[in-house]
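User: Could you check the structure of this?
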Amino acid sequence: MPRKLGVMICGHGSRDGQAVAEFATLAERLTPRFPDYPVEYGYLEFATPIIRTGLDKLRAQGVNHVLAVPGMLFAAGHAKNDIPSVLNAYAAQHDGFEIEYGKELGIDPKMIEAAGERIRGAIAAAGDGVPLHETMLVVVGRGASDPDANSNAAKVMRMLWEGFGFGWGETVYSGVTFPLVEPGLDHAVKLGFKRIIVFPYFLFSGILVQRIYDATDEVAARNPGIEFVKAPYLNDHPLVIDTFCERVDQILAGDNAMNCGLCKYRTRVLGFEAEVGLPQESHHHHVEGIGSGGDAHDDGHQHSHTHTHSHDHGHDHDQGHDQGHDHAHDHQHHPYPHADHPLGPVTLNKEGS
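Assistant: Sure, the predicted structure tokens are below.
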């Protein structure tokens, strides 16, 4: 049978309609970049179409060889385990159907330049009255229970800090790990800089980005002598689109391997030694499509879940997508070793989270 290629963009999904719409817009902007291939997209959970539906649409168009890329900034549990598991299961159920999986967006010069343009625009809007050496940059990563993904956010911050020549730079996170945004900014103000730029290194909007901006406003209200500048997130910046296209091209070129040098599932990483060799499985098969208008898969099957989490905010989420996650099912991630860190998720308890 002749090979017919198709492209599949795999997202996480969100209960936030704006985040889902922005992901769909990005996926649709990729379509004209691949005029010879059908392009579809799908989500792990909380939104439709789910990934299986996108693959079904490709098959209906005669595709038998899929080039799949994760629509995520960094590789944590979703990109490393959940999405590959869904793709592998689908391929196993359909004879003659092959799926090749590409890299996440990751640390890339184009992504750094896109981030730089967002920050540059925020500075222009705020005015250039404050010298860069008196300005502090705070980059907000999504936060994951994977230290490799978290360290990538810190590397992005350092490259932006050094590239612009800001007086100082720090990395905070929107969830799961530490420091969270508000305690991180509370520490940042003690350094005495006149202006603090808060930049969410996120692909899409949603609940988490709004929480980042809200936390910024709260800290700003307590520190009227410091100017806080809220930079916009990445969204569908043209260089983000270019990076997605490059990830698809890398599959075709055979250059699609993830960097597994610090993957906690394959390498002994300080503090996460117990997670080496954990099975590759998706924890989302029973919540596909939930939150998108009814608690059901979009294949017509109804599902009921009455289980609860038991791991203290240690949910392993990839950075770069929004979650208003209030999971209600029984999947178990390995407990995050620092779930009770005083500058991490435990600080949310005061808000009843």
